[in-house]
Amino acid sequence: MNAQRNNYSQIVLSDSAQISLLTNTPWNGAVYALYGHTAIRVTDPVRKIDSVFNYGIFNMSKENFIFLFVKGETDYMVAAIDFHYYVEEYEERGVGVIEQVYNLTQKEKQDIFDALVINSLPENRVYRYNYFYDNCSTRPRDIVEKYTEGKVEYTPTNKQQTYRDLVHECVDIQPWTKFGIDLVIGADADKTITDRQKDFLPLYLMTANEGAIIKSNSTEKKLILSTAYILQPTPLVKDNAISPLTAGIILLILTSCMSVWIYWKRLYVLGKTFDTLLFLIAGIAGCIIFFLMFFSEHPCTNPNWNIIWLNPLQLLVASLFFVKPLTKCLSYYHFINFVALLLFLLAWCLIPQQLEIAFIPYILSLCIRSGMNVLQQKIKKKADYSLPKAAR
Fold first, then answer.
1. Phi and psi, residue 51, nearest 5°
2. For an engineered disulfide with 111, which of 127, 147, 274, 380 has Cβ 3.0 to 4.6 Å away?
3. How far apart (Å, rounded) are the C-alpha atoms in residues 145 and 104?
């Protein structure tokens, strides 16, 4: 890489040079690949250059990578890769690669190439990745715009869309991924976004480029000279696992049947065991949502109305079900939780955040268990009062 970098720094591109945008189609082999990918290719047969500048490189083996990723402090890198190796990797995966050749002057090509070389230097190549605002798709767009003489006017989508709408388009083939994302992104993801903001998705940037023009003084020209498939994509396969909604309905039926059985047979220990597991899982999910809301740099995670039915308190409550002296306190919590969940469901259409229908059976399961705990406490209290004072 260092030798390649030093060679680059001495190069003046020939008239045969081309700069193009490479757009990779989605791949369902990894969650991050569902959104596609973008890179810049520089070719010059005279100078024997055929390199791809890739802004999507990250190191998963880095210390605390998962924690930093959740916190939104993930650092990505840009590096030059030989085009042959770049294409070979995606061909093995069955990923499509579309090339759009830019319509640039010789000076513009040289300026963009020089900027890419400077960006890929060890002291410059690392940048703070932001999924919606600063990623492998927006960086190539910005660098081409910066060194193009004139204003680029892109093809409009003519659609009112939100970040959530666009994310759904990418992850619909994986319902559990969609379910998880809808849990952690909040109300800001449901605001209508501009066409420029949609460019965080590679396929949207590619579509915006088609038909785009460069206006300079009284002249204008097309942004793209030609578009061609380098690799044809393999069709994506939808995940056939049980859907979140179906799993939720099964949980709701199980919760309802167990609640009736526990109430009828007075199997309170079984009830506490079931509640411990249910509220433990809800509490862990609540901690993740709370962390993303208040301690993460990820965009569109705060406010998040899912914190009402999934909150960190549930984790504490789950650890106290078998602590007898706190039974009364837990009863108060269950009453508040029952009312809050009920109001949340009744106000479903009024909440300023798009909520998954699949959430409803999970919310109802928590609501039922809190309601049953309140009912059981009332029955127990009534039974205690009916006993003679000496027996209490």
1. -125, 150
2. 147
3. 11
Structural domains of the chain, count: 2
Strand partners, 101: 20, 226
Q: Within 10-78, where are the H helices?
A: 65-71
The CA distance from 164 to 186, in Å, is 9
Its sign, for the CA torsion 157, 158, 161, 165, is negative
How far is the C-alpha of 346 from the C-alpha of 96, rounded, in Å?
46
Sheet holding 219-222, edge to edge: 151-153, 213-216, 219-222
pTM above 0.85, yes or no: yes
pLDDT tens digits, residue range 155-184? 999 999 999 999 999 999 999 999 999 999
Claim to verify: residue 125 and residue 264 sit in the same structural domain: no
**Nearest 5°: phi and psi at 272?**
-65, -35
Q: What's CA 130's distance to the chain center, in Å?
A: 11
Q: Spell out the residues 6+ positions from residue 302 whose beta carbon is closer than 8 angstroms to its own.
A: 186, 188, 292, 293, 294
Q: Tell me which residue range forms the domain holding 280.
A: 244-391
Question: Which of 203, 231, 259 is the C-terminal boundary of a domain?
Answer: 231
Same domain for 283 and 201? no
| Same domain assignment for residues 362 and 324 | yes
If asked whether residues 221 and 141 sit together in one domain, one would say yes
Phi then psi for residue 8, to 5 deg, are -55, -40
Tell me, yes or no, whether 289 and 337 share the same domain. Answer: yes
- Summarize pLDDT for 298-354 with one digit per residue, the tens: 999 999 999 999 999 999 999 998 888 888 889 999 999 999 999 999 999 999 999
Claim to verify: residue 133 and residue 112 sit in the same structural domain: yes
CA–CA separation, 299 and 304 (whole Å): 11
Task: Report CA torsion sign: 60, 189, 182, 332.
Answer: positive
Q: Does residue 84 form part of some domain?
A: yes
Tell me 389's DSSP state. G
Q: In what order do the strands lie in the sheet with 18-24?
A: 126-128, 75-82, 49-57, 37-44, 18-24, 97-102, 224-231
